[in-house]
Amino acid sequence: MSLIRKTAAELGELIARREVSAAEVAEAHLDRMAEVEPKVKAFLHVDRETTLSQARAVDARLDAGERLGPLAGVPIAHKDIFTTSDMPTTAASKILEGWRPPYDATVTRRLREAGLVILGKTNLDEFAMGSSTENSAYDTTHNPWDLTRIPGGSSGGSSAAVAAYEAPLSTGTDTGGSIRQPASVTGIVGMKPTYGGSSRYGLIAFASSLDTPGPFARTVYDAALLHEAFSGHDPMDSTSIDAPVPSVVEAARQSDISGMRVGVVKEFGGDGYQPGVLARFHEAVELLESLGAKVVEVSCPSFRTALPAYYLIAPSECSSNLARFDAMRYGLRVGDDGTRSAEEVMALTRAAGFGAEVKRRIMLGTYALSSGYYDAYYGQAQKVRTVISREFEAAYHQVDVLVSPTTPTTAFPIGERADDPIAMYLADLCTIPSNLAGNAAISVPCGLADEDGLPVGLQIMAPVLGDDRCYRVGAAVEQALESRWGGPLLSKAPAL
Amino acid sequence: MSAITRDEVAHLARLSRLALTEDELDHYATQLDAIIESVAKVAEVAAEDVPPSSHALPLTNVFRADEVRPSLTPEQALSGAPAVEDDRFRVPRILGEEA
């Protein structure tokens, strides 16, 4: 089997045994990227030499007998929202075009320490605001299953790169579903860790109380290996959790879920859900039952209000966070001709540097936070956030995990929702509640929709610090479905 | 009645330091009006006695020892600056002509 089809775990073992070098593995993936990038466009920045020199450095460390982790030498695609000192970092925004950060994000640093080899920086919706990657200021990424469709978003470059075998692993960030939804629509695994379980230091901020870095992979076990490699407490992020966490790698090795209590959230289904998505979801629930899980229906009525609450909280935080792009210290500056004031230069720069969705959200957030509207909008949304967290808590008294479809529909056509923000926001209907409550949640492939033959994702949600439950149930579902399908779902994807 | 007027959008754009064109103001007024109408559904949840959450998890202050630690050099800190003069960020004038 060619190197690009192997799992990250397999590659890590081959490299550790020195049967193949990290440089050869990197080269195989760079060649694959050269072949399919013109169609997929997952990457914003690729630099063959920087990547190969990283790989050769890992080879040298291994040859010198240094003991690195299980992913040493394995290539990874890195979302272009994490700072990298040796590659540009743009957040897919014109306001950061060409910016070379003077430091590495904690996630970047930990990837390097674990010996992972960064293949390049992947495309995203500008500042992670969107569900299709169409809001990138640079390029539109295409879904490897059907090049006329979106790869999800905001981490759409990262999902497409893994689904197209350009990389076995990639990083993402999930603020309202930006890992789980792209994983779902490209037929791969994507995990949003518990908020605070992975560091935000060096992650360009969108909504700080929600932003969570997490892994993409083609298998649940690979996702767990990557999760463990970059997560954990970081003194540089004051909201990072300083407590022992259960091993997700151990959990991903389990496939016994007999006796586990699984709750089906009543509110996720019905109008607006594609029949093929619901059909695959109901089959997955039956599968969980056949594996010995005890399935019950639970009701969380306020989840229906999670989407509006999110579209007040996230834009409010964004309007504050993006104030840092002031044209003074880094990034774009336009209109500084010696006659204009700093304030005029700032307003001209931000108008030129931010795209439409970012401007919409900044203004929406400014509105929700302004005096006279604060109580009715931002204040009320924060109360709804409390109610949603309480409903989760009540549900987790009855069950160990909750399940739902990851997204209401499969990948939609590029352009279909580009000018309709409200339709676009609906893609995150099922993923947002876990962000508001800070819970862990994973998306694993559960089949293809009958109508369009496109991937459907099963979302498995667990309480704060219950990340291991997501992996355990995810691994059980993956094992059972792959034996039914005779291989991974991705093997059914058309050749690129 | 619309939730937000074009004049209000112009005001928001000023507060947000976004120099929008007339066409953009029209466009965003329509879109923001629809979005605000849709997010106003948060009012449907009865939550008078519920405390607001600014965060998902309980937060406590995090302290560290007040010690000098390695940080960016002036060259690194200025490396992305649009304009630099004498090891400083060079910025357009901040005060008005009359000041």
How do you describe this structure in short?
Chain A has 496 residues and is α/β, with parallel strands linked by helices. Chain A has helices spanning 8-16, 22-40, 48-63, 106-113, 156-163, 180-186, 220-230, 248-253, 275-290, 306-321, 342-353, 356-369, 375-398, 421-425, 432-437, 467-485, and strands spanning 43-46, 75-79, 117-122, 169-174, 189-192, 212-217, 261-265, 294-298, 401-405, 440-448, 455-462.
What do these coordinates show?
The complex is a heterodimer of chains A (496) and B (99). In chain A, 40% of the residues lie in helices and 13% in strands. Chain A is built from 16 helices and eleven strands. Chain A has an eight-stranded mixed β-sheet, with helices on both faces. Chain A has a three-stranded mixed β-sheet with strand order 1-3-2. The longest helix of chain A is centred in the C-terminal third of the chain and has 24 residues. The model of chain A has no long low-confidence stretch (mean pLDDT 97). Chain B has a domain of 37 residues: Histone, subunit A. Chain B contains three helices and two strands; from the N terminus they run H-H-H-E-E. A two-stranded antiparallel sheet of chain B has the order 1-2. At the A-B interface, helix 10, helix 11, helix 12, helix 13 and helix 15 of A face helix 1 and helix 2 of B.
Topology at a glance:
The complex is a heterodimer of chains A (496) and B (99).
Chain A: H1 8-16, H2 22-40, E1 43-46, H3 48-63, E2 75-79, H4 106-113, E3 117-122, H5 156-163, E4 169-174, H6 180-186, E5 189-192, E6 212-217, H7 220-230, H8 248-253, E7 261-265, H9 275-290, E8 294-298, H10 306-321, H11 342-353, H12 356-369, H13 375-398, E9 401-405, H14 421-425, H15 432-437, E10 440-448, E11 455-462, H16 467-485
Parallel strand pairs in A: 2-3, 7-8, 7-9
Antiparallel strand pairs in A: 1-3, 4-6, 5-6, 5-10, 9-11, 10-11
Helix pairs in contact in A: 2-3, 10-12, 10-13
Chain B: H1 6-15, H2 22-39, H3 74-78, E1 84-85, E2 88-89
Antiparallel strand pairs in B: 1-2
